[in-house]
Specification:
The complex is a heterodimer of chains A (about 400) and B (about 250).
Chain A: H1 2-25, H2 28-51, H3 60-72, H4 85-88, H5 96-129, H6 134-157, H7 167-188, H8 190-210, H9 218-236, H10 267-278, H11 280-298, H12 303-321, H13 333-336, H14 341-371, H15 374-403
Chain B: E1 3-10, E2 18-25, E3 30-34, H1 41-48, E4 56-61, H2 70-75, E5 77-80, H3 92-102, H4 107-120, H5 136-148, E6 154-158, H6 166-182, E7 185-190, H7 193-199, E8 202-207, E9 210-215, H8 217-224, H9 231-245
Parallel strand pairs in B: 3-7, 3-8, 5-6, 6-7
Antiparallel strand pairs in B: 1-2, 1-4, 8-9
Helix pairs in contact in B: 3-4, 3-5, 4-5, 8-9
The chains are: A mainly alpha (about 400), B alpha/beta (about 250).
Protein name (chain B): ABC transporter, ATP-binding protein
Pfam family, one (chain B): ABC_tran
Keywords (chain B): ATP-binding, Nucleotide-binding, Transport
Chain lengths: ~400, ~250
């Protein structure tokens, strides 16, 4: 009874945490960017479907197979176990199966909903590309649901049966089985695939029943849950600071010669560049966003869409770099150094300007390549340079003041 | 160079931790700030370095308060915190470079001093490492080196001995003695009373946020009325009879 109570309390707290952070993730900038992205992607998808001929192309089925396998990776066991549990919950170990069952049910429901949602995105391709009828598509959905169920069930089983965690088992149950089922569904008949999925699940459950049960594998399960939570935190950390994630620090000795050398009056310039480069929070975020922007701009031939996306991306990258200014908030020496606050702002502005100009050059080159709009490109260049100056000028001062 | 704390009342919230604290640290003097956990040592230090604003009273260095001229006030202080505070992403060499820049020191002279200090504390072969990953004692040594290259007028040292090996403890005490001779004022909080008794010139005994007694060892012994008492005896004796008063 108690264990169920603990589960319910933890679930409530977990959902509250996600809700709390969702406010930061779904901030207005991100939602606007997302709308553009979804709009662009949707347009590209529907254009792509229109170009498909009535005959089947050789790569369509393999593509669907890969996509279905990727979909299967979404969602995993949410056990909400925590590190101190090894000490505090040890006396309740005999009750853990009831706790785990709750967790498994919850996880399976969420994972199956996610499958249905993802598969909905694939419907147009299945109907127009593979020329399936509705019944066949429905059968495919049910097959995916069975496969996902086995997937989560295997994770639960691994809590007590170490052999379900071995490589051989994992390759068979998580890769071999699903690939075989999907392959049958695509190349032979979708109902064969469905049958195979059900058959594999039965084998799995029977083999679980027949295995020797070991004691609960605390460390393994807690490590798993920790990794799962870290994935969340790392994602959320892209938008706001999460205390659990302090980015990795890398030495990157090779770049030392490009960093500013110690010079009088250069304190913060010296410090910020090093922090930016070596703390993955900043440098890898910058790189990721720059790559994403480059990639998207290369594939937008429409001038005005490209125009908006470019300015939006520059803004987003600048906005995501603002936390760098506050990177040393907890450090008492920031208050002790006999330096004026103005020097800090000056140094930060200089760095942000350099970073954004680099983006400006790369993005404009991409836009020129993709849109080929002579005067228009020149106009865009002018606007993006103006944006960098406005962003790193008054806007930055205002933003920083709001944040302190 | 004098640090003067005059009728300081302050703390973290409306309810003051420190009540009416007054004492002085003169040129060439090592003052020990003595007290139990929670007596108000760190709070006093946070007020001195300017992290906390006095609710009442005044703190001056050579007559200047933090409000008068923050830059000049801060440039006179070197601080060694109880827990080492380091930049995760800077190497040892870069920590020293940063300190030199932040305090506007002469680059080559400061590095000369740094080399000597690094050798003393056996850190000279670790210049390109990240000190944030060192052990507590080694990180503490990094803080000591960074503080002592500044040749500040006032050193504020919070519990410096915890985690230091005996050799490093001795080296630190020698260093403090040398700085005293140069004319620096040093305020050191500690509860390693035996060491404090041996090295400090003057003691401020804090208890429950108030100065219970202050003076040199002789003066304190006089007050207590026992001429052979050690600092530990004095401190325990004096704080206990206060407790009985309550």
């Amino acid at each position: 009874m108690k264990m169920i109570k603990i589960w319910e309390m933890r679930l409530k707290r977990y959902q509250k945490m996600l809700l709390h952070y969702s406010k930061f993730v779904l901030n207005d900038h991100f939602v606007i960017a997302l709308l553009f992205f979804v709009g662009g992607a949707g347009l590209t998808y529907s254009n792509f479907l229109r170009t498909l001929p009535h005959t089947l192309l050789w790569w369509e089925k393999p593509l669907v197979l890969v996509i279905l396998m990727l979909f299967l990776q979404a969602g995993s066991l949410t056990s909400l176990l925590q590190e101190p549990d090894t000490v505090f919950l040890l006396p309740q170990e005999y009750n853990l199966p009831t706790y785990l069952k709750k967790g498994a049910t919850h996880s399976i429901i969420i994972a199956e909903f996610l499958q249905v949602f993802l598969l909905l995105l694939l419907f147009p391709l299945l109907l127009r590309g593979l020329h399936w009828d509705r019944l066949e598509v429905t059968a495919l959905v049910i097959m995916q649901l069975f496969l996902k169920y086995s997937n989560v069930d295997l994770e639960v089983a691994a809590a007590y049966y170490p052999k379900f965690d071995s490589w051989l088992f994992k390759i068979w149950y998580c890769v071999g089985g699903p690939v075989l089922a999907i392959f049958l569904a695509l190349y032979a008949n979708v109902y064969f695939g469905l049958g195979a999925a059900v058959f594999f699940l039965i084998i799995q459950i029977v083999s679980e029943r027949r295995s020797v049960r070991y004691v609960f594998r605390w460390n393994k399960m807690i490590q798993r849950e920790k990794n799962r939570m870290m994935r969340w935190y790392r994602f959320i950390n892209l938008f706001t600071d999460v205390p659990q994630v302090s980015g990795k620090v890398r030495r990157l000795k090779y770049f030392d010669k490009f960093l500013p050398q110690p010079k009088q009056g250069n304190t913060f310039y010296f410090l910020y560049w090093r922090t930016f480069l070596r703390k993955s929070d900043f440098s890898s975020l910058y790189l990721r966003l720059t790559f994403l922007g480059t990639f998207i701009l290369l594939f937008i031939p429409n001038y005005w869409l490209s125009f908006t996306c470019l300015l939006l991306f520059q803004y987003l990258i600048g906005f995501q770099m603002i936390p760098l200014y506050f990177a040393f908030e907890g450090n008492v020496f920031m208050y002790l150094y006999p330096i004026e606050e103005a020097e800090r702002l000056f140094a930060f502005r200089k760095i942000l300007r350099k970073l954004l100009f680099l983006n400006c050059v790369i993005f404009n080159l991409c836009a020129v390549y993709a849109t080929e709009n002579g005067w228009g490109n020149l106009l865009l260049l002018a606007f993006s340079i103006l944006e960098v100056f406005v962003f790193t000028g008054n806007y930055l001062t205002k933003r920083l003041r709001e944040n302190t | 160079m004098t640090l003067k704390i005059n009728k300081l009342t302050g703390g973290y919230s409306r309810i003051p931790v420190l009540k009416d604290v007054s004492f002085k640290v003169e040129r060439g003097q090592l003052v020990g700030l003595i007290g139990l956990n929670g007596a108000g040592k760190s709070t006093t230090i946070n007020h001195v370095i300017g992290l906390l604003v006095p609710q009442k009273g005044k703190i001056t260095i050579n007559g200047i308060t933090l409000q008068d001229d923050p830059q000049s006030y801060k440039s006179k202080i070197a601080y060694i915190p109880e827990m080492p505070v380091l930049y995760q992403e800077l190497t040892l060499k870069e920590h020293l470079d940063l300190t030199i820049m932040a305090y506007g020191l002469d680059y080559s002279q400061a590095w000369q001093r740094a080399q000597n200090l690094l050798k003393t504390f056996r850190l000279d072969n670790k210049l390109n490492w990240f000190p944030a990953k060192f052990s507590k004692g080694m990180r503490q040594k990094v803080m000591i080196v960074c503080a002592f290259i500044t040749e500040a007028d006032l050193y504020v040292v919070d519990e410096p001995f915890l985690g230091l090996d005996p050799l490093a403890t001795k080296d630190l005490l020698d260093l403090i003695a040398a700085e005293k001779k140069r004319g620096a004022a040093i305020l050191m909080s500690t509860h390693v009373l035996a060491t404090a008794q041996e090295y400090c010139d003057y003691f401020v005994l804090l208890h429950q946020g108030k100065v219970r007694a202050q003076g040199d060892l002789e003066h304190l012994r006089n007050l207590y009325g026992d001429f052979d008492a050690s600092l530990t005896d004095l401190y325990l004796g004096m704080t206990q009879d206060v407790n009985e008063d309550d």
